[in-house]
User: Which sequence fits this backbone?
């Protein structure tokens, strides 16, 4: 009686998917669990020193970035959807280019350009005198501006999709019912795209919360910085875990805010899908202002920084010092590539298992497992990092107890720990791609193969995999680029002396050696452009 | 003695709160063609998938050729059941050629497989298509390839799920007859799911009518049509009107039907089909024409009896009686009203 369904071959698939879900969930649960055994001295010490300031800065930063990205993202989405002006089509996709710009690169460019020692302030002082007032870039404001410019595309993309897929039919219906343009906008468009804005805002806050590198350029201390400082300073994993629960609390707060902002609205309808809003032609100064707005954003968030980096890289090449960093480049690149390969292999392989388990295992359990593993993407990096340390230490203890030694110093980090953290963070995009790939294979095709005598593994090999192949490439690109760009988790977990390209950029930038950081920064952006261009092409196609 | 190709005993399947298949039992004899018909959502496709082993049942027994495929102790995976499955959408493998599709399930040496593939393609009349890909075929051609693919491993039972629903109506009857001929010539027993009553009556050696997860009636096509076991079967398997015994006695001039045919204790209604009823214009006939539907070769009249009950009458298109005409309805000689139990 205990093995009734095992003979169907469902058990293996079901258990594999449960195991994957556990791999993702256990570290996070362990972080939460650390609150159950609080070490009061750590808390009191933190409370009396940095923590109040960290909480305040985190809250201000999140609110500022949320407002900034909402205004910029939704505003630009409205501009390119509702109006036509010279270049409105190309601007439509160029506005997502900042997705390829990591915040830790734009951050130091912002500082070096309009910061206290940058050319803008030099010029300002020349014009208006030595003590002329200039906004304090080296502050929370600078951080908010940087994150806003890097992250607004999330809100922009979701708002644009909502405007195109949902708002069109309803807007036209409102107009035929006698509503004016502005009335229809206020009463129909805004409520309809509110869920998209809320969802975008939540993603933006998660991304902001994950970072603890960029904010340090600006001297902003968030709770994420707190986790980093406690862990790298004392290697007290329990103390770090306790601060990490605060990061998680902020993340939950962000999700709660999204729920509230969205209200009960769940607009899945597609009344007149793809119809969109009939754009109005702008002329004269209005058209000029629209063009100027788009240009300014693209220039500030992408084109300007890239040109500046390119100039630096060339300068560095020609300088008398030669290019000492070129000697190190292959080493750092190799470290990055190793991480990318491991992350891609782990994420894609597990994603393939999860996607197939939904076909071959018990449906309800395997679907739930997949949803749980996908939530890893929403867990902020510091929480994942500390959670992975807790989990690996626990594993180490357990293995030690049965007389096995895990090689390598677990506490100070190893590649294994890094890859595990990457796996949790980046499984979701890979799974998304692979799931849409298996979506191309109908249930009937699977059933046909099975009744023709193929077992589940044979069916996967002969039918699923050949038909899913292109989705593997998409999954590999998405996971690989995320893994290549990733900085905070590496900083938190890297073995001593293990530098990747982003770490190298960050170290150079922290020491204000901007010129030398230019070349690795440019290579990261170049690779990150890959998925962005894929997305841009998709965006361009169905647009009416 | 011969065992049944398929025995379904008290099979039940739930999806959450919904009981999709509710205590269903029936047998399919060797070489028999069973049509499974019912409205959408009645559980017929779920039942087919249970037989194929695409998911385990929640109760009951499924036996294939005398071997238990599914009961409380075991649930054989589909690849162990030796059933062939043909879907409405054909589900050909798009990355494989016609020959590779048909050969997919044949476990044999290359040369044996090749000869089996060409034998099957001959059988379905697709010999010239070996190297084509599914997207290069028409709907009817895909259907033939799907059938050849399912037959190639010599299944003990064929399961067909609405196999013709996606075909052009003009092609449908032709391909349906071809498929039935092929199943008969290979002596393959089959369960055939459809929502089309005429198809079920035309194809099945026997017909099982399903409703709300249960088998409402299982019988020969003639019995299903002429002796429906319930009001549901009567109206689902053709046009039916239900009259009280008094209406029949007083309102219809019956030739053979006499009131004594009806058990006085039986308060149930009597079913008549439109082709059972004819009428003559008559000022004191006791009925009035209230509706006419032109159907090309025939006209379907709606007649209102004095009691207020209505009954339909199917007449030749040559009969053209205007609305409001007073008529005398009567039973066509040889036709009899059928008592309905519920």
Assistant:
């Amino acid at each position: 009686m205990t093995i009734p369904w095992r003979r169907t071959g469902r058990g293996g698939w079901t258990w594999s998917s449960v195991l994957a879900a556990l791999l993702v969930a256990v570290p996070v649960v362990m972080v939460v669990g650390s609150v159950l055994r609080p070490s009061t001295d750590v808390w009191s010490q933190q409370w009396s020193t940095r923590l109040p300031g960290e909480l305040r800065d985190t809250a201000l930063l999140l609110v500022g970035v949320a407002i900034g990205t909402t205004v910029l993202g939704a505003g630009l989405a409205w501009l390119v959807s509702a109006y036509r002006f010279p270049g409105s089509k190309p601007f439509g996709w160029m506005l997502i280019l900042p997705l390829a710009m990591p915040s830790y690169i734009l951050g130091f460019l912002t500082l070096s350009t309009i910061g206290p020692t940058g050319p803008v302030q030099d010029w300002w002082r020349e014009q208006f005198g030595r003590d002329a007032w200039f906004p304090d870039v080296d502050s929370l404001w600078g951080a908010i501006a940087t994150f806003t410019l890097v992250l607004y595309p999330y809100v922009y993309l979701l708002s644009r999709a909502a405007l195109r897929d949902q708002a069109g039919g309803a807007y036209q219906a409102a107009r035929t019912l006698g509503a004016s343009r502005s009335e229809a906008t206020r009463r129909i468009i805004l409520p309809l795209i509110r869920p998209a804005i809320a969802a975008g805002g939540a993603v933006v806050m998660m991304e902001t919360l994950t970072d603890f590198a960029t904010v340090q350029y600006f001297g902003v201390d968030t709770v994420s910085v707190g986790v980093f400082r406690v862990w790298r300073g004392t290697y007290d994993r329990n103390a770090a875990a306790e601060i990490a629960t605060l990061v998680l609390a902020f993340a939950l707060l962000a999700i709660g805010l999204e729920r509230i902002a969205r209200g009960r609205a769940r607009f899945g309808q597609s009344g007149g899908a793809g119809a969109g809003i009939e754009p109005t032609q702008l002329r004269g100064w209005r058209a000029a202002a629209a063009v100027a707005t788009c240009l300014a954003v693209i220039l500030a968030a992408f084109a300007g920084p890239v040109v500046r980096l390119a100039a630096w890289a060339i300068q560095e090449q020609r300088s008398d010092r030669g290019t000492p960093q070129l000697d190190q480049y292959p080493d750092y690149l190799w470290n990055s590539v190793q991480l990318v390969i491991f992350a891609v292999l782990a994420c894609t392989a597990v994603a393939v298992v999860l996607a197939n388990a939904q076909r071959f295992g018990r449906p309800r359990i395997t679907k739930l497992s997949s949803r749980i593993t996908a939530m890893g993407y929403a867990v902020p990096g510091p929480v994942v990092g500390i959670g992975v340390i807790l989990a690996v230490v626990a594993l180490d203890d357990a293995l030690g107890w049965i007389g096995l030694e895990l090689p390598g110093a677990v506490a100070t980090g190893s590649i294994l720990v890094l890859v595990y953290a990457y796996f949790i963070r980046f499984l979701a995009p890979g799974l998304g791609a692979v799931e849409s790939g298996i979506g191309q294979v109908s249930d009937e095709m699977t059933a046909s193969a099975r009744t023709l005598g193929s077992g589940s593994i044979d069916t996967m090999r002969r039918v699923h995999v050949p038909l899913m192949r292109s989705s593997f490439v998409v999954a590999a690109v998405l996971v690989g680029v995320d893994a290549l760009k990733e900085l905070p988790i590496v900083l938190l977990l890297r073995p001593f002396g293990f530098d990747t390209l982003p770490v190298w950029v960050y170290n150079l930038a922290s020491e204000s050696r901007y010129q030398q950081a230019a070349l690795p920064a440019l290579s990261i952006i170049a690779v990150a452009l890959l998925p962005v261009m894929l997305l841009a092409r998709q965006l361009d196609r169905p647009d009416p | 003695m011969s065992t049944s190709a398929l025995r379904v005993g008290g099979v039940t399947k739930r999806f959450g709160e919904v009981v999709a298949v509710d205590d269903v039992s029936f047998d399919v004899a060797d070489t028999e063609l069973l049509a499974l018909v019912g409205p959408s959502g009645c559980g017929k496709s779920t039942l087919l998938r249970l037989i194929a082993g695409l998911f385990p049942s929640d109760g009951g027994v499924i036996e294939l050729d005398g071997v238990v495929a599914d009961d409380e102790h075991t649930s054989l995976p589909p690849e162990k059941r030796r059933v062939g499955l043909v879907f409405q959408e054909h589900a050909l493998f798009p990355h494989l050629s016609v020959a590779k599709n048909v050969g997919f399930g044949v476990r044999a040496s290359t040369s044996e497989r090749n000869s089996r593939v060409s034998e099957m393609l001959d059988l379905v009349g697709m010999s010239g298509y070996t190297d084509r890909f599914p997207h290069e075929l028409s709907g009817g051609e895909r259907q033939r390839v799907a059938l050849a693919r399912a037959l190639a491993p010599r299944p003990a039972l064929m399961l067909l799920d609405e196999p013709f629903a996606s075909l052009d109506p003009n092609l449908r009857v032709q391909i349906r007859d071809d498929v039935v001929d092929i199943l008969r010539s290979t002596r393959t027993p089959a369960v055939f799911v459809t929502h089309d009553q005429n198809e079920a009556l035309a194809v099945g050696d026997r017909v099982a009518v399903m409703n709300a997860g249960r088998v409402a009636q299982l019988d020969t096509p003639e019995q299903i049509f002429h002796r429906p076991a319930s009001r549901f079967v009567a109206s689902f398997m053709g046009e039916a009107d239900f009259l009280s015994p008094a209406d029949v006695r007083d309102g219809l001039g019956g030739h053979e039907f006499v009131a004594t045919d009806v058990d006085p204790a039986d308060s149930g209604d009597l079913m008549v089909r439109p082709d059972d009823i004819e009428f003559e214009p008559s000022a004191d006939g006791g009925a009035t024409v209230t509706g006419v539907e032109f159907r090309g070769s025939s006209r379907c009249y709606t007649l209102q009896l004095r009691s207020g009950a209505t009954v339909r009458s199917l007449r030749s298109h040559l009969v053209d009686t205007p609305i409001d005409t007073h008529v005398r309805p009567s039973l066509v000689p040889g036709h009899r009203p059928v008592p309905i139990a519920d």
